[in-house]
Design goal:
The complex is a heterodimer of chains A (509) and B (634). With 509 residues, chain A is mainly alpha-helical. Chain A has a domain of 224 residues. Chain A is built from 19 helices and two strands. Chain A has a two-stranded antiparallel sheet with strand order 1-2. The longest helix of chain A has 34 residues. Chain A is globular and about 75 Å long. Chain B is built from 30 helices and three strands. In chain B, helix 15 packs across helix 19 and helix 18 packs parallel to helix 22. The longest helix of chain B has 43 residues. Chain B is globular and about 70 Å long. Chain B starts with a helix and ends with a helix. The chains are: A mainly alpha (509), B mainly alpha (634). Chains A and B meet through helix 5, helix 6, helix 11, helix 13 and helix 16 of A and strand 2, helix 6, helix 7, helix 28 and helix 30 of B.
């Protein structure tokens, strides 16, 4: 079932290539249809997920490059489950939102579907080599989405995005290979199997180097302060759909990477890194919020707000307690939904007015009351108003961080104030006041298609705010398992080599 | 579940019911109605449904009140809200004596204000949006006082803050009004940051004794697990939140600006209900505050200082709503003073009487503004006594009540606070004295307002004078009902009713001078106002001129807003700009770009590869990966 979810979009992407160029409408419908089917299949994962188990579920494991111990090995646990769902949920929304992309439609859809496969694969891969392949597969479509369908400085932004992320991933590749080598040295077999690599005993000094290589790659992706400067450029230049996926899912690859790989593989190094990462997270929270506050460009504002929000995610994770990590994972989902919605909202007015400057708007409520109301709820979700999704995540993160480090918690709380400042101020300048620009007097309110885009997003904001338990329950066991791995110190590692698990080929497809 | 049996113990007197949920649910239905059907069905439907929903919740509240077990409480647990690790928070509502009083005030006064609003907003085209917000406010406020745990209280707490923001900026095309709403929200968020930290500290402190809860009853049961010095920190942090929401020094600055909202909103949110949330919260956590005399003395001092300070500003303001706003800040200070000396009953008592007479004052002011074609400057009013008799008489009653004239509601509650401020073990003659002087100022500025507005000659333009009219029945009937409540509110047996929570009330024993002086000072204030503004108005002008520097200082509210702007707002904006334009653009990006350029300059070979062709990048990538892999494997 997992493989079906991963590869259905890729299959559709390939089929798209055989379609006639003129059949734009058909191509759109086809891509949207496939994305919806993918989402529906992924719901099967949710339904069949057993929340009482900490292990990976829906596992599929077949040898791929047997000589190098590389497997096609995928599976889902309570952490990746919802990120997979977030991805399959956002892609159809983004495709629906891209209805007014008119240049090279086929290629645009092709890259989006390919991107979806890359993201899903990276989220479910349990073999490090496989993970790395998917990780790189994600990069290429995003590069093109920014570079071809982007704004005026798209080439600069695309190359910056590519170079930044590649620098990180190269180091990660070296570290991955070194891990396989270590496994060979300790257990006499080369493997990229994550669960087996978890059992490696690595001297702390080595851990630090390897952790640094992984962490750099992930920190750039998050982005953690001070590795964030590619993000505003990439967002500003990317087309709306690209921004939504970039913020909604791609950034989570960084935080997910920490949680899945960097922390459990190198627990001692992770512990040693706590003060540094916590400090950078808190700086990111405050810095992102302050810089967001003074942005004249709507997209840049949202981009910097992401730096602030992702700072919360990192902070919660490095609290190394249940609440912190649960909040962190929850906040990954929240950020995907709320910030995704924010980028879509910016896209709505950009499409009509072709400007992103806050000062070009003002008084939109009068002209677009439905838009203004949707914007209001989204903004409130983003600033963590209780009753909406953002609060649950932020609250758990701050509660956990406060336990881990009182000062980190205290500073993080200031992010709550600053978040309100930049969002409310932006909202006021865009939505309130008089309609002073002539051009804005012709603006039309949300179309039925746009309402269809925002309805599921708003519904999720409410659901996740009022009834988070279905999500939290399914995460709990996997987070406990992760915590247990992170708590493990080199000193207490058992010495006997661990039998590799029997190869199981799941014939679900 | 571990927490389930923990709560079960605490609730020997608690009765499980499932109807409390309807109390906030009805107004919530009103919100949905107004959003989705309001515009389509029109003003008439909106005017019936919106107050109607609040009335239904008033009826359910009455039902809960009558069924409240003696000394016990009602609990309605709906679902497990957040559970993560050791944290379990139920979405559960409770009604005990304190909540019962609060929900009756919120739905009762709230209903009257909804009815009043149908008249006040009769000419506004956006009435459905107005009532959507007002209903949402009512639902949030009810959640705040019904919440069975600290986190649910916080949901309501932020919800009312949101509605306050939306309603202050209801007329959003006016940038000043929109800014006032934003300011209210942000200042409140500063308080909320303190609230959250207090909550975290409380949670983890109890956790150290393996008590994992945020539920009020369970916290109370295990309160002994909180060491006194930690309790002080928790209480002070929570008090920051209370000071934000209930407009105390130094976070009161948003409330006067909040007067930009429609006047019924000021009555409901910024006088009767929301601003009392801080008092409610501390009264709710009285068992926690009891652990820390230090924190209590801070509460009392800040309360007394605010009561005095805000009253001085109120003396000279000329905007009818601004006078009332500073009066509210001042009266809230009295309530905190009561809480701070451990007289929770007195504080809550004043909360209730204040809800009646201050709502009445604001609604009266609204009636005046309505009749005066939206004029708010009292120097342009005068002589309205005969033209708006109902408004005048009800306003007069409210003034008597707030001035502490014997027999009316305010007299009982304010006197009690001042006696307690003197006689309580935590009290002091100083607190009493400050409060007493404040009482004199209160009486003075309220009657100044009354005299200038309703007596003498009308000073408005001919055009406005021509239109002066008494308000319609939808507005005057609520005024009349509130006037009755402002008179009889002092006779409600509230002190005994609240005794299961705060202990049996004992009348403090104080010397006659201490007991009667506040009343005398209050009457003196009224007399002084009469002399200065009715008998010989020249005195007031002369005084203002003679003390011009002082008058200017008061009139400009001690320039606190300007100081905040210069010391906090502008430096932060300046720093943010610097961070963006210098640090982000030059330092970080400069380093990155510099590194890239250096690499480019040094590696002429690399240049061949850097042709911008991604396929080449990908290819070289793959080759590199394979090479490294190969190296390790052979």
């Amino acid at each position: 079932m997992v493989s079906a979810v991963i590869f259905l979009p890729l299959l559709a992407a390939v089929l798209l290539l055989f379609m006639a160029k003129e059949e734009e409408e058909l191509a759109r419908r086809f891509a949207l249809g496939v994305a919806l089917v993918t989402f529906v299949i992924s719901l099967g994962l949710l339904v069949n997920f057993d929340s009482s188990k900490a292990d990976f579920q829906f596992v599929e494991r077949v040898p791929w490059i047997a000589d190098f111990g590389i497997h096609y090995y995928v599976g889902v646990d309570g952490i990746s489950l919802f990120l997979v769902l977030l991805t399959t949920f956002l892609v159809p929304i983004v495709l629906l939102a891209s209805w007014d992309v008119h240049s090279r439609v086929k290629e645009y859809l092709f890259f989006f579907l390919m991107l979806e496969t890359g993201m899903l694969g990276a989220l479910v891969a349990l073999d490090l080599f496989l993970f790395y392949v998917f990780w790189e597969v994600m990069l290429i479509p995003m590069y093109f989405l920014i570079g071809v369908w982007g704004g005026a400085r798209r080439i600069y932004a695309a190359i910056k995005f590519l170079l930044y992320t590649m620098v990180g991933s190269l180091l990660m590749l070296v570290a991955i290979l070194y891990l396989a080598y270590l496994h060979n040295a300790q257990y006499g077999a080369v493997t990229f199997d994550l669960l087996q690599l978890y059992n490696l005993k690595i001297p702390e000094q080595t851990q630090l180097w390897l952790f640094a290589a992984f962490a750099l790659s992930f920190a750039i992706k998050v982005p953690l302060f001070p590795f964030h400067t590619w993000l505003p450029d990439a967002h500003v230049e990317a087309p709306t759909g690209g921004s939504v996926i970039l913020a909604g899912v791609l950034l989570k690859m960084g935080t997910y990477g920490f949680l899945r790989f960097a922390l459990p593989l190198f627990p001692d190094a992770a512990h040693a890194a706590v003060p540094t990462i916590m400090a950078l997270s808190v700086i990111g929270i405050i810095y992102g919020a302050l810089v967001a506050m003074v942005q004249p460009d709507l997209k840049k504002l949202v981009a910097y707000s992401s730096v602030s929000h992702l700072g919360f995610v990192m902070l919660g994770m490095f609290a190394f307690n249940m609440q912190g990590i649960a909040g962190s994972v929850y906040q990954m989902l929240n950020h995907g939904i709320s910030t995704g919605a924010l980028f879509l909202l910016v896209g709505v007015v950009y499409e009509r007015r072709h400007t992103r400057l806050i000062s070009d708007y003002g008084g939109l409520w009068k002209q677009m009351p439905v838009y203004a109301s949707v914007f209001l709820v989204t903004m409130l979700s983003s600033i963590g108003l209780p009753g909406l999704n953002g609060f649950v995540g932020e609250f758990l993160i701050m509660l956990g961080a406060f336990k881990a480090n009182v000062w980190a918690g205290a500073f993080a709380v200031s992010g709550v104030v600053l978040g309100a400042v930049y969002m409310l101020w932006m909202y006021q300048r865009v939505i309130f006041g008089e309609l002073k620009h002539e051009e804005n007097k012709k603006l039309t309110d949300l179309s039925p298609r746009e309402i269809a885009i925002f309805t599921p997003l708003l519904a999720l904001m409410l659901l996740m705010g009022l009834y988070p338990q279905p999500f939290l329950t399914r995460m709990e066991k996997s987070i406990e398992a992760t915590l247990a791995r992170v708590e493990r110190k080199t000193a207490v590692v058992q010495v006997e080599p661990v039998e590799p698990p029997p190869v199981q080929v799941v014939a679900e497809r | 579940m571990e927490h389930a049996h923990a709560t079960a113990q605490a609730l020997s007197l608690s009765l499980s019911v499932s109807y409390l949920r309807y109390i906030p649910l009805f107004p919530l239905l009103g919100v949905l109605f107004n959003i989705f059907l309001g515009h389509r069905l029109g003003r008439k439907a909106v005017n019936i449904v919106s107050p109607g929903m609040v009335f239904l919740s008033f009826l359910v509240s009455l039902h809960a009140f009558w069924n409240l077990p003696e000394g016990g409480r009602l609990v309605d647990t709906m679902w497990l809200w957040i559970s993560s690790g050791t944290l379990h928070v139920d979405f559960a509502l409770q009604v005990d004596q304190l909540s019962a009083m609060m929900i009756l005030v919120v739905t009762g006064v709230g209903f009257l204000i909804h009815v009043y609003s149908t008249g006040y907003m009769a000419h506004d085209h956006d009435v459905a949006r107005y009532f959507a917000y007002l209903n949402l406010f009512t639902a949030s406020m009810l959640l705040l006082v019904l919440g069975e745990n600290l986190l649910l209280l916080f949901v309501g707490w932020e919800g009312v803050g949101l509605c306050s923001y939306l309603l202050i900026g209801f007329w959003y095309t006016d940038d000043e009004k929109a800014s006032a709403g934003k300011k209210a929200f942000i200042v409140n968020r500063v308080g909320d940051a303190g609230f959250l930290l207090g909550l975290f500290l409380l949670f983890w402190t109890l956790g150290e004794s393996n008590v994992w809860t945020l539920s009020f009853s369970t916290i109370q049961q295990h309160i002994a697990a909180v060491p006194a010095e930690v309790a002080t920190v928790i209480c002070l942090l929570l008090f920051v939140g209370a000071a934000g929401k209930s407009a105390q020094i130094p976070l009161y600055v948003w409330l006067p600006d909040a007067m930009a909202g429609p006047t019924p909103v000021s009555a409901l949110i910024h006088a009767a209900t929301m601003v009392t949330a801080g008092i409610y919260m501390i009264a709710r956590l009285n068992f926690l505050y009891a652990l820390s005399p230090t924190a209590l003395s801070v509460v009392a001092t800040v309360g007394a200082a605010t009561a005095f300070f805000a009253a001085t500003i109120g003396l000279v303001q000329t905007d009818i709503k601004k006078v009332l706003a500073y009066s509210t800040v001042s009266q809230l200070g009295y309530m905190f003073l009561a809480l701070g000396v451990g007289a929770y009953t007195a504080g809550v008592f004043h909360l209730m009487t204040h809800a009646f007479f201050k709502a009445l004052l604001f609604l009266g002011a609204g009636s005046v503004i309505h009749g005066m074609s939206d004029e708010q400057d009292i120097t342009k009013m005068g002589g309205l006594k005969s033209k708006m008799p109902v408004t005048f008489w009800t306003f007069f009653i409210a003034c008597l009540a707030i001035a502490g004239v014997p027999g009316l509601s305010g007299f009982f509650s304010k006197d009690l606070i001042l006696e307690e401020a003197y006689a309580s073990p935590l009290g002091s003659p100083m607190l009493w004295l400050v409060g007493t002087i404040g009482a004199g100022m209160t009486a003075f500025y309220m009657f100044r307002l009354l005299f200038v507005t309703f007596f003498g000659e009308n000073r408005a333009s001919h055009e406005v004078q021509h239109h002066i009219h008494e308000s319609p029945a939808s507005m005057t009937v609520p005024l009349a009902i509130l006037a009755v409540l402002s008179i009889v509110g002092g006779y409600f047996p509230l002190l005994h009713f609240l005794s299961p929570l705060f202990g049996e009330h004992h009348e403090p024993h104080v010397a006659p001078l201490i007991k009667y002086l506040p009343t005398v000072v209050g009457l003196g204030g009224i007399a002084l106002a009469y002399v200065m503004y009715v008998l010989n108005p020249a005195i007031a002008d002369n005084m203002a001129r003679g003390l011009s520097a002082f008058h200017k200082l008061l009139f400009n509210k001690y320039y606190i807003d300007e100081i905040y702007d210069a010391v906090i707002v502008r430096p932060i904006v300046g720093m943010s700009n610097w961070l963006w334009k210098v640090w982000d653009a030059i330092v970080i990006d400069g380093t990155v770009n510099g590194a890239a350029h250096t690499m480019e300059a040094n590696g002429s070979l690399l240049r061949l590869w850097q042709n911008g062709n991604v396929q080449n990048y990908a290819l070289s990538f793959l080759i590199g990966a394979m090479a490294i892999l190969g190296y390790y494997l052979w």
